[in-house]
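quick one, 439 residues, struct below
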Amino acid sequence: MKLRPVWVLIHRYTGLAMTVFLIIVGLTGSLLAFYAELEHAINPQFQVEANGRERLRIPALVAQAERLTPEVKAESVWLDESSGTAQVSVSPRTNPAYNKSYELAFDQLILNAYTGEELGRRTWGDISQGLVNLMPFIYKLHYALALDEIGMWILGITALVWTLDCYVGFYLTLPANRKIKHQTNLYPQGKGAKSFWQRWSPAWQIKWSASTNRINFDLHRAGGLWLWLALLVFAWSSVYMNLGDSVYKTVMKAVSEFHEPWADIDDLSQPLDNPKMGWNDAYYRAENALTVAADSRGIRIEQPVGLWLNRTKGFYVLSARSSADIQDRHGNTRAVIDADTGETLMVLFPTGQYGGNTVTSWLFALHMGNVFGYPYRVFVCVLGVAIVMLSVTGVVIWLRKRRASGYRQKAAGKLAAQSVSILTDDPDYAADSRKNNRI
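---
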């Protein structure tokens, strides 16, 4: 049995199944490559000039958010360098008068990181609130189809299939074995036979002078081949983002040393509503743990990036930027602190500590367009459009094949009908037919 036709069918129909999802993530990803610039243009009210001031420390920003809105409790604080703001994610406290949670019309407070002044509030990603949520909505659409957990699973499975299909697509660009056999018969001594590269080189080219169908096919094949490594990086990094605690964790732990708090620390029997350690103590304990670990490795801690509380697993995570970071913006050097005892559970550096974490840091930075400066962000933007192009050309190839198959079936049917007509008009055939019917 020849396997190549089977792989062609697998590539064709998995591609069709992924088309809508890849078009969505391709278009939204192109915009997200310039998330900060677009967010700033759409929401200039969320821009703050430093004017030589120092940012407030994270615990002070948490306290300010809870002072401004006593009915909320903080879940995370992220410092945005480019806008000079602090984005505080919140959830409702329990209303003691009714013993149920307060109803909130927002889940994010945006504060001036230098003064603590409130700049705005929104339900992050809720497009019904208007342009204030346009870029967050596009972000939500990109990683979860704006469908929360269900959307994350859909795109996670799509990313896994996409990763595997990258290898199938690459295999299908290689010269078929039948060409080798054919050339061996023509050139038994090997003289005049084409080399592997000569037979593979057409797959890298687009024949612009050919028919529309051929150009479409070449765009699909050559485009996928030239961008193959980038497509694989984005596909597998998408698995990390959407199936990180299942598929990605399992694979990475099997091939390398890989540690993440969400992968290594078990869930509590019930979520932690009121941790014994507050934000202030957690911040300074985590900061101290980070400084000690960094000093022992000769790593320089530059500035804090964010602090968040995982109630499901019962720990705080302090993120900072350090000399071990590869990202252009933000940072992923982390200290994980038990939210009740203050014990240091782990300190993670993005590079140079664990092989799996180093690979993951690169995958994440490449996917987010957060490395190699502005030119790479332009490349990410163009790649998003290219993903749409590859999806559309794949559908066109399928439609053309389907149409051609329909034409062949019709032609075969007409030929069969003509054959029967000729036979029935033959006197000898008619006589034999009557004889057989009598028998």
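Confidence is low (pLDDT under 50) at residues 433-439.
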